[in-house]
Amino acid sequence: MEGRHTTPKHTAPPSGRTGTRAQPAQPRKSAEQAAVRTRPETEGPVRREEPERARRPETEERMERPAPRPPKKNRPSAAGMILRDILLVGIILVVFAFFHHVLPRITARNTVITPKTTVVTTPAAVSENTPEPTPSAPAGPEEEQPPEVSEEPAPVEVDPRTEWQKRFADKFTDEVVRTADSYSSPNVSITITTHSGEYKGYYQTYYIADIYVANIENFRTCFANNQFVYYGAQDAVALAKSANALISMNGDYCNNQRSGFLVRNGDVYYDDALSFDLCVLFYDGTVETYSPSEYDPEELLAAGPYQTWKFGPKLLDADGKAMTSFNTTTEIIYEEAPRSGFGYYEPGHYCFVVADGRQNHARGFVLSEFAELFEELGCTRAYNMDGGASSVLTFDGNTFNKPSGYRQLGDILLIAEIPEQAGEEEGAA
Q1: What is the pLDDT of residues 16-50, one digit of tens each?
Q2: Is residue 142 part of a domain?
Q3: pTM for the whole thing?
Q4: What range does the domain containing 361 cover?
Q5: Helix or strand or coil: residue 170?
Q6: At the N or C end, where does the chain have fewer CB atoms within 10 A?
Q7: In a domain, 74, yes or no
Q8: Which residue intervals of 265-335 are DSSP H helices?
Q9: Are 117 and 262 in contact (CB under 8 A)?
Q10: Where are the extended beta strands (E) located within 133-285?
């Protein structure tokens, strides 16, 4: 009947038992309630999990999830990149300097190099056209001859002067004469002129030492501390004084040389070819400059070299004209720097030229200007020596020019009285 509450009849359990009261049906617990009840009270609230049937497969979630972006790199600024490059170049230069300059000096220090042999000059051979003495006729029986009146031969005047003393007689003096910028004796003549002013559009200061010698041995070279030591060095004035130099000029930095062609004062240290231009002063007083392809070491040794230099390059061609291209590095060619050079006019007549630079009173020469200066002086051969802070001219025991810095030298070119000449002068006095 509608609206009337009726109690539903209960059926017996499937087990078939009778007489037992059926238990009321309990509502099914949700998964969330079960999880809350079974979790220990000490734990915090649990994230609600979706029913397993509602979860998507994990692989499907991975496919739909977007790939993570790579972290953004911070690019260095332009200033940072420049600074990094400068530091890298600095490290490379330091490493190069260590292996090229410092390490060789450490390993080769106190290593003395002795000459292999000495160039010996021999007197000229006797001419084959010299007539042989004719045999005298056999003497016959002795006959009385009237006594002959003997005449005393006229005394023959012998000129003790050397060929160069005769040729340059007006340059030498009977006694030693010294001034602040000159020196003359029976064997040596030195005159130094200082030039300051505009040269080819730039303010320059340079010094020209005009030199005449009576004997090739008045022209000498000397190593630092009087011995050839790898990277050996000595103060320029002290080195000049130890060699009794009247005048000296820095040499060619030969003490870093381990091979090549090197002859000093007739002593041969190396006799191999070089890749540098070579300058040779022979025993007869002549000077030649060679490019690497223009000479053979054996032929040079046979010709009697007295001094050789290997810094370079040569500055004049075979006609005495200034070179326009040079066998050396770009830095040496175009740098406005202090310079030192050796010039040759004829046997017995030479010049030292030293130019200041990198200072207010002197800009310094590029190599082509330096070559033109030797052409203007009238030299027939000229050769560039070590430059920069090495360019030093000493005279009478003092520094004559104004070097751009202080640097000890490995060797010098010098003019001096030889011991025999000095003894003669003391005896005459």
Answers
A1: 444 445 455 555 555 455 544 555 554 555 555 55
A2: no
A3: 0.70
A4: 168-428
A5: coil
A6: N
A7: no
A8: 297-303, 330-334
A9: no
A10: 177-179, 182-184, 188-199, 202-213, 219-223, 247-250, 261-264, 267-271, 278-282
